[in-house]
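Note on ligand handling. Small-molecule inputs were canonicalized before submission; formal charges were left as drawn, and no protonation-state enumeration was performed. Where a ligand contained multiple stereocentres, the stereochemistry in the source SMILES was retained. For zinc ion, this procedure yielded the string shown in the input block below.
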Amino acid sequence: MTADVGAQGTGADPYELWDAAYVLGSLSTAQRHEYERHLAGCAGCREAVSAISGMPALLALLDRDAVAAAGDCGTVMAAPPLPERLLDNLLARVQARRHRIRLATAAVATVAAVALLLAVFVTLRSGVFGAGDSGAGNIVQAMPMTPVVASEYEATVALSSRDWGTHIQLECTYHSWAADSNGHSDDDGDTGDTLAMVAVGRDGSQTRLATWRALPAATALPSASTSMPMEQIASVQIVSADTGDVLLQRTL
Ligand SMILES: [Zn+2]
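Structure output:
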């Protein structure tokens, strides 16, 4: 892309068209040094560089979600289409500087350079924000859990994928019939059952992540984490802590 940029110049200055590539960082190291040596002695090129040096700041106009979406595609080649406003700004500035030069050549070079810079920007962004990200990512909305046996429990489960594993949040309500049915109390009174959250891996492993006491007519919000990536979790279960019987589960 940059190798033939200089050859497109029609004036006496062979470096006339190197400014955009220089500002956007797409020159090779050798080309950059060569151009900087030229800049030292060429007021015209210094002026050209100065005029477009704010171009990278135009990237700030990019919609944050559009950039994030490009990162989610997993490849820097999947950069989103340039917003028209950004493209118009770039073209207007380039056109103002290069009215003597065929605009098509400059536009193609500039758009290609911006696309390259955008790709680098997306890569850096996912690198910087991905490495230290301890916040929520890829959250699955709360999903109802399916009763495995008839019980008085109702529950939902929500998972969120983190760099370090998976966070699991349960909402478990104990609709104790005993609480509103006089003279028909449970054998163990109103103390409720002890329940446990179990993560079942796709490799068959079962990991007990949390236990809690289900109080009559109350909703418990147990949450826990596992080092298992979310895609390796086959299902989440609520089991009786004492017997291990599965009461509810959600297959992922
Ligand atoms: Zn020059």
